[in-house]
Structures are given as structure tokens and as C-alpha cells.
Design goal:
The structure is a single chain. With 257 residues, the protein is an alpha/beta fold. It has 8 helices and 7 strands, in the order H-H-H-E-E-E-H-H-E-E-H-E-H-E-H. It has a 7-stranded mixed beta sheet with strand order 1-2-7-6-3-5-4, sandwiched between helices. 39% of the residues are buried.
């Protein structure tokens, strides 16, 4: 099967899971097919699926991810020893682990085609990621506390692992507790990465955006926490600060240079 045939197969299989969706026609235009597939993946609840679906999905997503362009540390500027800054889609990074700013349910974003990092990571990793996270959370038996970290395989992404952490939600004035929780997110991810032999990690801007943590202070805490951890542990881990907005790129440029 070529990519179009794979995409249509995946859409039809996901439509067939819902009796009320089976009469829906697959669009002709590629962009509309892409949106339909992503929507169906985003809203799908954790549950088993056939090996044939997984096989086709994996082949499809791996080609999609290759076509987006895979980025390695060698493609980035090392601003300080072991510190890199890169602007773009974190799902393109071929590093030891990327960090996902998760919600406390830890099963990904269910909002169709939402542009949050949680949605993007789950979309391009594949539906196995939601199932894997669901197993972790069912074993845990309660929602993920703020400031901790969990590790999962990356499935179809070019990185090796995904580290999931729930950042603080700032409603009203920024507090010392918010700052301590954000610091804990970074430290927990670094400790989890070290524990699993990961030599390079890419951090997103945890808790900024819809979680409303002030961007500049969030960047200060991120850099300070990573530097402190590396000094205290003598860690040789390579650290990428991944940004998506011009505003955050300027902030990290200012703080790192």
C-alpha cells in the first residue's frame, strides 16, 4: 500500500469501530483525510486494536515522521556546553527522550486536532502510546501528581523515549509553590532520564501557554534547575530547550547567551 491507501485503510478501520460512523464517507482531498485520521485517533478511547491496524499505522506514521524531517543534535547549535536551543516541532527530534507536557489523566489530549504538544506527541507516536499510558495509570490508580515524571516508549517517533510530566496550572498570581512544582518537573525528568541511561533530553516549555505560567520566569526556572542538577550530579546529559514560539526563542536566547 502507498501512503494514501494506508491512510484510507486506517480511517475506515477507526470509523468501523463506531456503528454511527460507518456511513461516513472518506474525503477525497489529502488534507481533509489527514484531519479526519488525526481526529479519529485523538478521540479514540484506550482499547485493543488489531495487529494489522498497528502494522499499517506504524508504517504510515514512520513515513510521515521522516517526511517532516528528522533533526539531531548535530543539526543544532550548542549555545553552552551540553545546552542547545531549537525552535520547531518536538516530534521531529531524534534524541534520547523528549518531554511531554501532559495533563493529570496522562492519556493524551482528546480534543480533535488540538495544537497542544500532548496532542501532537500522541498523534505521531501512534495509538499504542495512549494504551500504554492507560495501563500505567490503571496500575497507579490515581491521577498523576504535579511535578513528577513517567517514561514510555516513543513508538513511531524518532526519539527513543517520551517523558511525561504534569506542570503547575497558574490561576491568578504566580506563587512560590508554582515555582517549586515547575522545578520539580524538570528535576524529575532529568532523574528519570538518568535512571534509564538516556544521554540527551529535549524539554518543551512546561506549563506555559494554556497552563498560564509566565514565560520568562518559566525559562529561568528551567535553565537554573537543569544547571543545578548537572552541577550536583556531574551529569553529562545533553539538554535541548525546545521552543515553538518566537517569544520563547527570544527569552531563551537572552538567558543562555
Amino acid at each position: 500500500m502507498n501512503q494514501v491507501q494506508k491512510r484510507k485503510y486506517l480511517i475506515q478501520e477507526l470509523l468501523n469501530e463506531h456503528s454511527e460512523y460507518r456511513s461516513i464517507k472518506i474525503p477525497i482531498v489529502d488534507s481533509e483525510q489527514n484531519r479526519m485520521l488525526r481526529t479519529l485517533m485523538n478521540i479514540r478511547l484506550p482499547k485493543d486494536i488489531s495487529e494489522s491496524f498497528i502494522r499499517v499505522q506504524d508504517a504510515y506514521l514512520q513515513e510521515v515522521n521522516r517526511d517532516k524531517g528528522i533533526v539531531t543534535l548535530e543539526d543544532m547549535e550548542e549555545i553552552q556546553p551540553d545546552f542547545y536551543l531549537w525552535k520547531g516541532d518536538i516530534t521531529r527530534l531524534k534524541v534520547g527522550a523528549i518531554v511531554n507536557a501532559a495533563n493529570s489523566g496522562m492519556r493524551g489530549c482528546f480534543q480533535p486536532c488540538h495544537n497542544c504538544i500532548d496532542n501532537c506527541i500522541h498523534t505521531y507516536a501512534g495509538i499504542q502510546l495512549r494504551n500504554y499510558c492507560d495501563d500505567l495509570m490503571n496500575q497507579q490508580g490515581y491521577e498523576e501528581p504535579t511535578g513528577q515524571a513517567k517514561i514510555t516508549p516513543a513508538f513511531n517517533l524518532p526519539c527513543d523515549y517520551i517523558l511525561h510530566t504534569v506542570g503547575p496550572i497558574v490561576q491568578g498570581k504566580l506563587s512560590v509553590e508554582h515555582e517549586k512544582q515547575l522545578e520539580s518537573c524538570y528535576k524529575s525528568c532529568l532523574e528519570m532520564a538518568e535512571k534509564n541511561g538516556i544521554s540527551s533530553i529535549a524539554f518543551c516549555c512546561i506549563s506555559t501557554g494554556v497552563f498560564m505560567f509566565p514565560n520568562f520566569r518559566a525559562a529561568e526556572i528551567a535553565i537554573q534547575t537543569v544547571k543545578k542538577y548537572k552541577e550536583q550530579t556531574n551529569s553529562k546529559m545533553k539538554v535541548v530547550f525546545n521552543v515553538f514560539k518566537d517569544e520563547d526563542e527570544k527569552i531563551y536566547e537572552q538567558l543562555l547567551r
